[in-house]
TrEMBL record:
Residues 224-359 form the DUF6545 domain. Pfam families: DUF6545. Keywords: Membrane, Transmembrane, Transmembrane helix. InterPro entries: DUF6545, MAB_1171c-like. This is DUF6545 domain-containing protein. The chain crosses the membrane at residues 6-21, 33-50, 62-83, 95-114, 126-151, 163-187, 193-217.
Length: 373
């Protein structure tokens, strides 16, 4: 069995729709693009010959022909609406539905009035105006989608998002082309105008699939980065939470591998637990420990960007030593938790530097006097 370009392209579209579904659930900003891709995937699937035959056998050719055209009009309007929203043009979002409602109403009125007994493309007895409504609406809506995506691509800084919008623009234009060629065929009655419909639909499907898949790259990169940070913080987290086990939150072991759960969530929990443990352990050090930690960092000429993390690692080592020896905690008047940064990513980077400094062998053997064991 030889698969056509159209079949492979539609399969890729459905694959991307399914893969992006978890992201669309958890990220409201991703839903307009996902819904628009899903709708065009449904419509492209409906026009496949095998699907049309199956629907005609199930519902009859009369209902299938009209129903497919109505779905085309409504979905084209919905796609344009969601593309407008996704690109920040919310004030125009109601116009596509108004135009679709008017177009669909006229299409139904014409179809019911003519009452074609054997609807087939080019042999339905329907007036040319019917096809101009369906095809024209689709051409205008899908071309508008392409223009919006092209304009949006110019504003994107990330290469993946920029190329995603360019691929989507190509997909929308390729999707509009068969509707335009359909009108030329109906006017000229020359079948050569529709000879490449399947291949054009395949190109459109690939363009939309690629455009919808490319925005996954930043998400995948972030997930890989967060999972790597989660693992790197593991040794420090275990050491600190063994000394302060009450800071551990309820575990969610499947969170890191479920696609619908952001990789940031387990990392965030780990960062919170480390921070809470640091707050507990800072009561086990005194001014002498802090002075010795600063002196050791200066003596070893630690680079300035690593100094705060190195000091934190050294007084943590001293705090753990006091804790293990049974020394009583005391109030720490200074905020010695370290400089975590202004946002979550900076906080993670700081704790990673602390973990590296603690693991370098110097901080682990650090004593109250600042001398290595």
């Amino acid at each position: 069995m030889t698969l056509s370009v159209e079949t492979i392209g539609v399969f890729c579209m459905w694959l991307v729709v399914l893969v992006r579904f978890p992201q669309a659930i958890r990220d409201r900003g991703q839903r307009p693009l996902w819904v628009s891709v899903m709708l065009i995937t449904v419509v492209t699937t409906l026009y496949m010959e095998v699907v049309q035959t199956a629907l005609a056998d199930l519902f009859g050719r009369y209902a299938t022909y009209l129903g497919t055209h109505l779905v085309t009009v409504v979905s084209a309007a919905a796609v344009l609406r969601f593309v407008l929203i996704a690109n920040g043009h919310r004030k125009y979002r109601h116009w596509p539905y108004l135009a679709a409602a008017i177009t669909a109403g006229v299409v139904v009125w014409i179809y019911v009035a003519v009452d074609p007994q054997n609807p087939r493309p080019g042999h339905t007895g329907l007036p040319l105006g019917y096809f101009f409504l369906v095809s024209g609406f689709s051409v205008v809506a899908l071309t508008a989608c392409a223009v919006v995506c092209l304009l949006g691509a110019r504003r994107m800084d990330h290469w993946a998002m920029r190329w995603a919008l360019l691929a989507l623009a190509l997909g929308w234009l390729a999707n509009a082309l068969p509707w335009l060629l359909n009108l030329v065929w109906l006017v000229t009655h020359d079948p050569r105008w529709i000879a490449w419909f399947s291949e054009i639909d395949g190109v459109a499907a690939f363009g939309i699939a690629i455009g919808a898949a490319l925005p996954l790259i930043p998400d995948i990169q972030q997930r890989v980065r967060h999972n790597a940070a989660y693992r790197r913080l593991g040794p420090l987290w275990r050491t600190l939470t063994e000394a302060a086990p009450h800071v551990r939150l309820a575990r969610a072991p499947m969170a890191r591998i479920l696609p619908a759960v952001p990789a940031r969530l387990p990392l965030y929990r780990r960062v919170v637990e480390i921070r809470d443990a640091i707050v507990v352990l800072r009561s086990y050090v005194d001014a002498g420990d802090l002075d010795a930690a600063h002196a050791d960092v200066e003596r070893r000429a630690v680079p300035a960007e690593l100094a705060d993390a190195s000091v934190t690692a050294r007084w943590l080592a001293a705090a753990l030593r006091h804790h293990d020896e049974g020394d009583p905690p005391a109030a720490q008047p200074e905020n010695i938790a370290g400089v975590g940064g202004d946002d979550f990513e900076q906080e993670v980077e700081f704790l990673l530097r602390v973990a590296d400094a603690y693991d370098d062998g110097l901080a682990r053997g650090y004593a109250k006097t600042g001398e290595n064991k």
